[in-house]
Amino acid sequence: MNLKHFFFLLLLTSVFAAPLNAQKDGKTFKVVIDAGHGGKDPGCLGTYSKEKDVALDVALKTGKLISDNCPNVKVIYTRSTDVFVELYNRAKIANNNHADLFISFHCNANDNHSAHGVETFVMGLDKSEKNLAVARMENSAMLKEEGYKEHYAGFNPDSPESAVMFSLYSSAYLNNSILLADKVQKNLVGTTHLLDRGVKQAPYWVLWSVSMPSILIEMGFLSNPTEEKYLTDEQHKKDIANAIYRGFVSYYTQQTGNRVVIDDSKESPKPNPNPQNSITNDNSTNNISDNQPDKKESDEKAAIANTPVNPDGVRFVVQFMATPENIPLTDKRFKSIPDVNRYFEGGLWKYTAGNEKDLPSAKKIMQEIKAKYPDAFVIAFKGENKIPVSEAVKLVK
Question: What secondary structure letter does DSSP report for 334?
């Protein structure tokens, strides 16, 4: 797709998209189930298994659980057999069907055969080498396509244009993507008891190009003999599918208000005792807690930033984290961050730094915070209300 055409399409979807938290009122909710790789593209390889086969099996099992138990949900598969589907066509299937959600299924691999665990990705321009390495591996599927340069010439996570496009994507879909990723990751870890590698950001083309909240799940390492055995066991694949299904149901219920009864005869995942940041930029262990679908109005009122504002009521802060988890402001992770605060919006707790009277001061703080949180950005408040930064600049002047 031409870069300018993609930019225009993304701009339109971000401007005219329906509110992501709107009630569906009985209307069909569409979820795209994307089994990674396929056909001539085997994906990563274990000793005796192929990523494309494991991904397809778990994807079909998950899709069936959704179809059988969620009457208002339509499941759309990018592939249901062992065929090769181009990355751009996977995105096209999702966009042409005006889907509400995109879930991509994958397995991981590493030259270090002791590497293990599950991780869930959302779109991001994070420069962490470990996250980039995983993204490069999955993005390499495009090299198997005929005429791939024509379809992907505009995809360059290091370009200024891509950063602008991602900022539009972020505002429209990132919060909901994180919300879904958090629920899926928590259920996967609680069910499989595999290492929790966390919810992370990385520049996956297939996440970058769909006009809806989207996640990519790395279900474990086929390069690890123990996890390869786990991932190819029929019962364990059912367990993984059930965990992802539970994560989807929790998200779907929260977004639509449509309740889905889950068979509690199967063991529910146990919550982790030491919750950490919902997005991590490395491969350290990351335990995530799952918030209940219903948020009380009092929580929102209590979460408005309470740091004193300047005399004319306008202040600039740096938002560096968004997570369903209500983390104490005294948490050790915030020790080196100035004036940490939080507010509640769109089902997520959003954490900010600084409390500045002007934009340049906030940008200075942002540059310091980006060393640890690469996707940090400046926002503005007037009193307790968030306002556009451009408006805040005019008010200060």
Answer: G
